[in-house]
Amino acid sequence: MKKHIAVVGAGYAGLTAAYHLSNFGYQVTVYESARILGGRARRAVINQQVLDNGQHILSGAYHSLLKLYDAVDSNPPHLHKLTLDWWMWNRFRLTIKPNFGPLSPLVGICRAKGITFPEKLKFLSFLMGLQFGKKPKSGLTVAAWVSTQPAKIIRYFWEPLCVAALNTPIFKADAQVFYHVLRDGLIKAPLKEALILPSVDLTALLPDRMANTIAEQNGRILTSRRVKAIYESAKKFVVDDAQGRSEFDGIVLAIAPYQMKYIDIQLENNQSLDEYRSYLNQLTYESITTVYLQYPSDCRLPIAMVGIHGCTENALGQWAFDRGQITNQAGLIAVVVSTGDTVDQLPDEVLQAKVQSEITQYFFPKQHPLWIKTVREKRATISCDVHKVQSTSNVVSLTNSFYVAGDYLHPLYPATLESACQSGEQAAQLMHKYLLT
Ligand SMILES: Cc1cc2nc3c(=O)[nH]c(=O)nc-3n(C[C@H](O)[C@H](O)[C@H](O)COP(=O)(O)OP(=O)(O)OC[C@H]3O[C@@H](n4cnc5c(N)ncnc54)[C@H](O)[C@@H]3O)c2cc1C
């Protein structure tokens, strides 16, 4: 008889685990409390448009996610793979095209617009240090690490890059985590895929496709099914949700860290569970807000993704995405505003008016949006705070064949889709290894 595994949570981590377990030959049941798959990276239908709960960016360094994307079925949706075109509107532009082989970054920096030659030299010398593996000391913030860089480069490159990659402002972000992202995303990743933007919504990109494969292998995907409790009984695990109790040989628990307190977990030996809970207690969170503005369909941004971070004093918007160029939603602009108490406290109308005035001023001086909607995710990711104790492994084993997975557990990287996929994949592998013995 096939062993039966329950996966709780159908975000990227849970579905990745379920997909691999199903391929290993296990009977898999996925419990998801929401109606839509994808968790914090999911489809959101707004004003009859298929959008996301927040604009996401991927990169060529997302090996685990991209491997899955290719493997799940033979019909993957289109991905826009872009070279680095770091354009802070009217202030700074750095384009790195792969045409010059290993010298491409050097050529790109020499040609960068908005900075002087001495500033370029300082920028280059920092990047060369990175290339040669010059790692920051532990306990250093990103702000302290880049403090010798010219002010303009900090403002138009390091600051927005840190927020985009770590969703944490530079004054508190952990320089070592940032270093790993730079090493893998900027130095090692192929220049042709510095940025990747999906052309479909985030549920269609992978979660729906993984769920179809799991269902084809007789797995079950149960949506709108919130798990209330998990406990051990006679060498099995009992999963309790509003519709009853079921027994399993193994569990992968892949819910967001702040959702853990709503599940009652009872184990015969609680030591690992207590340690894990004390790790969760020290986590703090950062928000991400996305403002969608529908302009007339002939309104286009100069490129698919333009930086507006710091372009005017007290500007709120950080990045503007042209959904017309990404998903054929002509005239639809997504403005991302990450991490910030100021933003979280502003009422929607005030935030929208401010973002609208920024976009109108920079790009469409004669136009008015037809509609504006805001999606707020208050706990979008954990904070990559320099004071946070790093997790030591990207999967937590609570007891034999009970694993916890999720984006927040990666020991080196920030909480991203890639960290979620890596964690889910590893949870499946550990489960398989254990059940084989
Ligand atoms: C607005 C926004 C923008 C982002 N931008 C980026 C980006 O550009 N690039 C990037 O890589 N990452 C980005 N992220 C982060 C990325 O979305 C997350 O890292 C990733 O989605 C986390 O996946 P996960 O599976 O670990 O957790 P989750 O997605 O949180 O999945 C957990 C799932 O468990 C379910 N669940 C919870 N409790 C229960 C229960 N009791 N029973 C059953 N089910 C339950 C939840 O409904 C959810 O579906 C962004 C996140 C947000 C919110």
From TrEMBL:
Domain Amine oxidase: 13-431
Enzyme category, top tier: oxidoreductase
MF terms in GO: oxidoreductase activity
EC code(s) of this entry: 1.17.8.1
UniProt KW keywords: Oxidoreductase
This protein's name: Hydroxysqualene dehydroxylase HpnE
Organism of provenance: Leeia speluncae
